[in-house]
Amino acid sequence: MALTIEDITFSDNSARLRVPEAFTLVVFGASGDLARRKLIPAVFALHCQGLLPEDFAVLGFARTPMSDEEFRARVRDSLDGCKGEPVSPEQWERFTSRLHYFSGQYDRAADYATLRDRLADGLPENRLFYLATPPESFVPVVRGLAGADLTRKGAAGAPWARVIVEKPFGRDLAGAQALNGEILSAFDERQVFRIDHYLGKETVQNLLVLRFANAIFEPLWNLKYVDHVQLTVAETIGVEGRGGTFDRAGILRDMVQNHLMQLLCLAAMEPPLTLSAEAIRDEKVRLLRSLRPQGPQCAASGVVRGQYAAGTIDGRSVPGYLQEPNVPADSQTETFVAFQAHIDNWRWAGVPFYLRTGKRLAKKVTEVSVHFRPVPQVLFNLPPVGPQAPNVLAIRIQPDEGISLAFQVKQPGPGLRSGTLKMDFSYAEAFGSAPPDAYQRLLLDAALGDPTLFTRNDEVEAAWRFITSILEGFESPLACRMLSYPAGSWGPPEADALLRADGARWHLREE
């Protein structure tokens, strides 16, 4: 059953969201994959929508020697390779003159002095620095900017300087604290935008609206009515040529500490006092601090972890993780984790939250599903018409963004037979197009100075505090063996047993 949106007036805040003042976006790592596939196309899309000022500039910074013209040619190739409408000559003509390039070393102080001179040579004084580099370059770049007096720490008003830091933000709690210390020695917290692109997705943002703008949901969003909550981030891809990099991280660091923790916060946090950035981020931090710590013994025995073996994805054979390039043959790095988390507060005490993520799974999908308690074992929940399936509210983050609600209805015909019906809302169907790329929203917010969709230093550290205890459990002598699962499945069978012990099963599963 599809929902359509008709005769509804939506407020238009596009004028408020347009960046009012000229700025220069400095992209460190401009020759890399992230800049090519995501950042520059997002800037181009914002430019075409008229959301950027007339006098903005993009200055790429990377180690690869390149002229402005060569950089522009690369950008044009990346735009031509993106999905969507072809780049028109008029659009490109207006955009290309704003692109500039600077070749330098991330750890060479003299290059930052030259960068300072280049920025002062006719480029807008407001500066947005984007660290799209490998994480080991974050500290050298921050130190270089500070050494060249480009950070404007402590300055009030215009011109401004801000920095966007990509994930991963540290490898554990100690690493995140050290990185925060380095960044906050060069910038004020209000200047720092720690990015998690999941927060830029429309459906993730819609979690707040769904919960707090609808009287039918929030009264039920608690231990009295919710049986359990499931969060799944599943990928069909493998390590995609990043074997060495991924093997040093693992799926727990790569996906759980950031993406899944953010989804958990928005699905379970208390209502903020206002919609201000700090009020929302305060509640996220409170939620993370309410997570029951996973002691080493609990983490060792209660977290299902595995590696994908050879299998079939979309009809083609794919190798196992240990056969991927640059992955050690004896690697003990997990490509799948599933575990149960508990939030020790008045709203959620006793309600299990099941988190699952992995590579080379059966389907590419990100979903939060809220499973309500079954109706009492009377009337329709007894034979011959029962037992009835409980109601499920599923929020699909990707790839088919939308929301579905499963509820019971009478089936047509004689007798009193009931069945489950799904009422489904699709963003693409309702609004006529798919939601914009998350990086568009996040770049726009950073240019506007709005930190709502970015993580604060204490939030990052609170998430790492919970995850680090699990990492320590992995290193414990009590740690369970690394499990194996075939590519194209939903992971090790032991992940199903996590829920089966509580009389539940995964909402997304093999039929």
Describe it for me?
The protein is an alpha/beta fold. It has two domains: 14-166, NAD(P)-binding Rossmann-like Domain (Rossmann fold); 199-377 and 454-500, Dihydrodipicolinate Reductase, domain 2. The protein is built from 16 helices and 17 strands. The strands form three sheets. It has a nine-stranded mixed beta sheet with strand order 16-15-14-13-7-12-11-8-17, sandwiched between helices. Helix 6 links the parallel strand 4 (127-131) and strand 5 (161-165). The longest helix is centred in the middle third of the chain and has 18 residues, at 251-268. Residues 1-15 have low confidence and may be disordered.
Compose a concise summary of this entry.
This protein is an alpha/beta fold. The chain is built from 16 helices and 17 strands.
* Unreliable stretches: 1-15
Residues in helices, as a percent range: 25-40%
Q: What is the CATH fold-level name of the largest domain? A: Dihydrodipicolinate Reductase, domain 2
Q: What does the main sheet amount to?
A: 9 strands, mixed
Task: Write down the overall mean pLDDT.
Answer: 88
Number of helices: 16
What structural class do you assign from the helix and strand content? Answer: alpha/beta
Instruction: Provide the spatial order of strands within the biggest beta sheet.
Output: 16-15-14-13-7-12-11-8-17
Number of domains: 2
Give the strand tally.
Answer: 17
CATH superfamily of the largest domain: Dihydrodipicolinate Reductase, domain 2
The CATH architecture category of the largest domain equals 2-Layer Sandwich
Strand content: 15-25%
Per CATH, the class of the largest domain reads Alpha Beta
Cα-atom radius of gyration? 24 Å
Described by the principal axes of the CA atoms, the overall outline is globular
In whole angstroms, the N-to-C terminal distance is 21 Å
